[in-house]
Amino acid sequence: MDSIEVVVAHQERATLRVGDVFLKVDADQKRTDAEVAAMAMAPLPTPAILWRKPPVLALAALPGTALGLLGEPSPASPQAWAAAGAAARTLHDAPLPPWPGRTVDDWASELDRECTWLIMNEVLPTALITRNRRIAEAALRPWSPAFIHGDFQLTHVFTDGDELTGVLDWSEAAPGDPLFDLAILTLGHEERLTDVVRGYGTEVDLDLIRAWWSLRSLVVIRWLSENGFDPSAPGCEVDVLRSRM
């Protein structure tokens, strides 16, 4: 062991890498409980749990590499992105986890709260917020709940060549809209949506995925800004919102 790498750190949790071991430190042990339970239920490869001593969860490294980073071109092949779409479909076809997920009303309340904050604090032009809110509201409709990952971003999906090797970070897993996972996976990488849908293997409403891009970007800007991330970096959330104009 030569060093300790801080993979990610913010007010809620931190992840450290020590050699081939990842140490997740989470202030909310209920969230860790859900992550452990979700990994046990998920029909996908997940990191092996080495040990747990609250507030720390030790996980083995996954083989392969992540699909990419938000704001940067993905080096992964179209087949690797299709494999991620196929993995999402496998997960969504699995039995639901027994705990509740976020409802339409939950999302509507958060969207209203965050748009109000963005406008009052003049974070973004009002026209940009209003346009994206109108798009986002299409996602706020009844859906048939599926077992979703809840944070299925490209940095959490690992592949080796064209094959999926595993999925990280199951702390947000719950029943929810399956299109949310596809939207989070392709956020900022719209050019990969065709590959993901091809791997998913069934027709999806692309306008609803675009609605989730707007909704997710609007509601996460304050949290990102308060936790040391830059949503206005090239290719990130603010650019996603601007692309809807």
Automatic annotation (TrEMBL):
Gene Ontology MF: a single term: transferase activity
Q: Name one Pfam family in it.
A: APH
Give the source's domain of life in one word: Bacteria
Residues annotated as domain Aminoglycoside phosphotransferase: 27-206
Q: Which UniProt keywords apply?
A: Transferase
Q: Which residues form the signal peptide?
A: none
Q: Which PANTHER family match?
A: AMINOGLYCOSIDE PHOSPHOTRANSFERASE DOMAIN-CONTAINING PROTEIN-RELATED, AMINOGLYCOSIDE PHOSPHOTRANSFERASE-RELATED-RELATED
Q: What is this protein called?
A: Aminoglycoside phosphotransferase
Q: Which organism is it from?
A: Actinoplanes awajinensis subsp. mycoplanecinus
The beginning of the lineage is:
Bacteria, Bacillati, Actinomycetota, Actinomycetes, Micromonosporales
